[in-house]
């Protein structure tokens, strides 16, 4: 994809700027066992982590590319042209003034320090491979909440990390989880003690700056019994004519009665492959909610999952996908009902425009011993023109006849009458389209913190510009 | 002439190749209420839609001017911003867009620099909604989504009051209204009428008992075949349209 096409794909992409690359450590391109060992050594990791990495590397090399999704695009990934580790600052600072100027300016432009002051309980800002800034409000720290970048998490709490690492997403789950496990760097480590309710969301922001960069953050959130947390993440990258790869693994553990909400607004530039494995395990009466928005990237393949392991656990997956020119959003949800009386709701909404393609891929499983389960799945697609594509791949495996399952799907188009109605109220065609699109995504946006919702709506309005001939 | 808001001259309109309006002329001045009556299929709604600029309707000959400007030079949204308003017979629903947001955005789009401040807007909105007997809970519902016929019509009139047009086209605004709703809707029209040209499209007389037209036009097969004063409406109610057909 040329740079120009990449820009066209996302309309007026405001985050496509880049800083000069001032790496303090930059690995040569390409992947080998030595690269994996070097990353581990550089971080002074315990031996067991090095072993996990090397094993995962071998699994990655053995495993074939997925034979589903967008194989054509997947096969274009050149693993040898990617930089697997790039350190861009001396360390992780807890004062923005200590962050290198270029990087600080970038995060200022992205509005992170401002958001931090106004409404966040803590922030991790990752730039390339590692966190450059990290902070948590004192009151949360006093309550025993641990919020660190993952590298620090491993250093300071190795027993917890060892216990849960790969416990929800095994390295060999898929080729890209194997890759992440081999070369992971950065991400968030979050522990909420029993009964603690974190009222303000905590945020992680991921920025890729360099060309042909691979970003492989690893996130682990453990909510102890009866606690609750809302974790928000955002991401952007410069627009380049060559591809970058973002391949994260996220593991959530919600203990009995705990609640984790994990919200994402993914807005990578249109030259980024976004191949992410996100999965949570919910114990008895726990709730895991994925609120997942995919606006950017070239190809996204991501299906936030929940294992409902304890009786009475609940899963909620609300996702939206926007696919413009040259983009394929292959997204969805997976819920596994493994225990009795577990419930789940899946709502997926997608928009395709200018030849973009969005796919819903879902898995709903009810195991034989999971009696009395309820699940509702709703998939709505909105097509903005005739060149675009939308498809649905739902899978259901139901092993218990008592399950109460609902599945609704719809595909709609913007009608001339809707446009005419809005235009007769003074809105230009672009503005009218923006209103319709924002309305379509509203069940998602209303779940976001207000600041994110406003930003997302603005983003979608920008997407409509230049889209109409 | 300074008061002329709409002038239609020998207008011909087609939809997908079928001619619907066949040589229609009409002039509306500020402060005048015109009613167009006729059977279903006479072309009444087509007239309202073509004036507002619906893309499905094609002007094949003749002209329509708004305050002297030929309408073909104006996009639909420009017509709205210039002061034209259409109350729809079947307003579209816009799922996910709250009425309150929609009204605020529409008012700032149409009234531009003269749009009220947020505080004044809320005041204006409140007084109009009270006049129309609309509950505040309306504002958080999605535009026309799941609305009853009467609710849709009230929302149309609320928009008209807020957008304060100089030309108001009301397409079958009375259909589907019970007697109380008809009264509040009529009050709304009457409050806009002194400073605007109004074109009421209806095939019942009952709206005209509440909103007194200055002119009543009878439309048959794409043409105005007779024009009279308010008494013509009563005559149509009693005698039907057959006597007007050639």
Structure summarized in a few sentences:
The complex is a heterodimer of chains A (469) and B (246). With 469 residues, chain A is α/β, with parallel strands linked by helices.
Describe this structure in words.
The complex is a heterodimer of chains A (469) and B (246). Chain A has 13 helices and 24 strands. Chain A has 469 residues and is α/β, with parallel strands linked by helices. Chain A folds into two domains: 300 residues, no CATH class; 56 residues, no CATH class. In chain A, strands 5, 6, 8, 9, 11, 12, 14, 16, 17, 19, 21 and 23 form a twelve-stranded mixed beta sheet that branches. A ten-stranded mixed beta sheet of chain A has the order 4-3-7-10-13-15-18-20-22-24. A two-stranded antiparallel sheet of chain A has the order 1-2. In chain A, strand 3 and strand 4 form a beta hairpin. In chain A, helix 3 packs antiparallel against helix 10 and helix 12 packs antiparallel against helix 13. The longest helix of chain A is centred in the last third of the chain and has 17 residues. The N terminus of chain A is likely disordered. Chain B is of the alpha/beta class. In chain B, the strands form three sheets. Chain B has a six-stranded mixed beta sheet, sandwiched between helices. At the A-B interface, helix 11 and helix 12 of A face helix 2, strand 7, helix 3 and strand 8 of B.
Number of domains of chain A: 2
Q: Which pair of chains forms the biggest interface, and how many residues does each contribute? A: A-B, 24 and 30 residues
Biggest sheet descriptor of chain B: 6 strands, mixed
Number of β-strand runs of chain B: 12
In CATH terms, what is the architecture of the domain at 4-92 and 162-244 in chain B? 3-Layer(aba) Sandwich
> Helical proportion of chain B?
25-40%
- Rg of chain A, nearest Å: 21 Å
Give me some keywords for this one.
heterodimer; A: 469 residues; alpha/beta; 2 domains; twelve-stranded mixed β-sheet; ten-stranded mixed β-sheet; 13 helices; 24 strands; globular; disordered N terminus; B: 246 residues; Rossmann fold; six-stranded mixed β-sheet; four-stranded antiparallel β-sheet; 7 helices; 12 strands
């Amino acid at each position: 994809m040329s740079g120009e096409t990449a820009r066209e794909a996302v309309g007026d992409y405001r985050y496509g700027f880049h800083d000069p690359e001032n790496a303090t450590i930059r690995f040569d391109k390409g992947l080998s066992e030595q690269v994996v060992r070097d990353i581990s050594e550089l971080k002074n990791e315990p031996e067991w982590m090095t072993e996990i990495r090397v094993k995962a590397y071998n699994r990655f090399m053995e495993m074939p590319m997925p034979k589903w999704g967008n194989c054509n695009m997947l096969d274009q990934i050149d693993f040898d042209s990617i930089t697997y580790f790039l350190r861009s600052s001396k360390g992780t600072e807890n004062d923005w003034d200590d962050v290198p100027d270029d990087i600080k300016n970038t995060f200022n432009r992205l509005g992170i320090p401002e958001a931090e002051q106004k409404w966040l309980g803590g922030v991790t800002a990752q730039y390339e491979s590692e966190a450059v800034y990290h902070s948590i409000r004192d009151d949360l720290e006093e309550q025993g909440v641990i919020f660190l970048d993952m590298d620090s998490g491993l250093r300071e709490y190795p027993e917890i990390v060892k216990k849960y690492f790969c416990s929800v997403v095994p390295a060999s789950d898929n080729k890209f989880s194997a890759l992440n496990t081999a070369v992971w760097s950065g991400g968030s480590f979050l522990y909420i003690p029993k009964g603690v309710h974190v009222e303000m969301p905590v945020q992680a922001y991921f920025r890729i700056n360099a060309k042909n960069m691979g970003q492989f953050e690893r996130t682990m959130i453990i909510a102890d019994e009866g606690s609750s947390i809302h974790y928000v993440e955002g991401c952007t990258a410069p627009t380049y004519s060559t591809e970058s790869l973002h391949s994260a693994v996220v593991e959530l553990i919600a203990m009995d009665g705990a609640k984790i909400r994990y919200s994402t607004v993914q807005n990578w530039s249109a030259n980024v492959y976004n191949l992410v494995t996100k999965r949570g395990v919910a114990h008895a009466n726990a709730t895991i909610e994925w609120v997942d928005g995919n606006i950017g990237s070239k190809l996204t393949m991501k299906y936030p999952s929940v294992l409902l392991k304890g009786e009475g656990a609940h899963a909620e997956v609300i996702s939206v996908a926007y696919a413009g020119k040259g983009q394929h959003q292959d997204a969805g949800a997976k819920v596994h009902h493994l225990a009795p009386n577990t419930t789940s709701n899946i709502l997926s909404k997608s928009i395709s425009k200018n030849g973009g393609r969005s796919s819903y891929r879902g898995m709903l499983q009810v195991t034989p011993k999971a009696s009395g389960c309820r699940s509702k799945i709703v998939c709505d697609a909105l097509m903005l023109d005739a060149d675009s594509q939308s498809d649905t791949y739902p899978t259901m495996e139901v092993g218990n006849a008592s399950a109460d399952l609902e599945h609704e799907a719809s595909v709609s188009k913007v009608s001339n009458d809707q446009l005419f109605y809005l235009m007769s109220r003074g809105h230009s065609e672009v503005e009218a389209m923006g209103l319709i699109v924002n309305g379509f995504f509203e069940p998602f946006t209303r779940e976001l913190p207000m600041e994110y919702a406003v930003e997302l709506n603005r983003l979608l309005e920008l997407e409509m510009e230049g889209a109409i001939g | 002439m300074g008061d002329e808001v709409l002038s239609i001259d020998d207008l011909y309109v087609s939809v997908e190749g079928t001619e619907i309006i066949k040589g229609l002329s009409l002039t509306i001045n500020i402060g005048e209420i015109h009613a167009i009556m006729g059977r279903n299929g006479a072309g009444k709604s087509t007239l309202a839609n073509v004036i507002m600029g619906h893309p499905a309707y094609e002007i094949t000959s003749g002209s329509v001017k708004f305050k002297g400007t030929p309408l073909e030079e104006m996009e639909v949204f420009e017509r709205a911003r210039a002061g034209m308003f259409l109350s729809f017979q079947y307003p579209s629903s816009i799922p996910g867009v709250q009425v309150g947001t929609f009204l605020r955005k529409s008012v700032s789009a149409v009234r531009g620099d003269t749009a009220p401040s947020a505080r004044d807007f809320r005041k204006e909105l409140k007084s109009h909604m009270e006049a129309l007997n609309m509950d505040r809970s309306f504002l958080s519902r999605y535009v026309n989504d799941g609305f009853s016929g009467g609710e849709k019509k009230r929302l149309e009139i609320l928009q008209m009051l807020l957008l304060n047009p100089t030309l108001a086209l009301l397409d079958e605004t009375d259909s589907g209204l019970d007697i109380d709703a008809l009264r509040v809707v009529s009050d709304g029209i009457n409050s806009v009428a002194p400073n605007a040209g109004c074109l009421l499209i209806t095939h019942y007389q009952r709206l005209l008992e509440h909103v007194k037209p200055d002119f009543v036009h009878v439309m048959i097969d794409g043409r105005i075949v007779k024009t009279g004063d308010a008494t013509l409406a009563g005559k149509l109610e009693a005698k039907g349209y057959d006597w007007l057909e050639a």
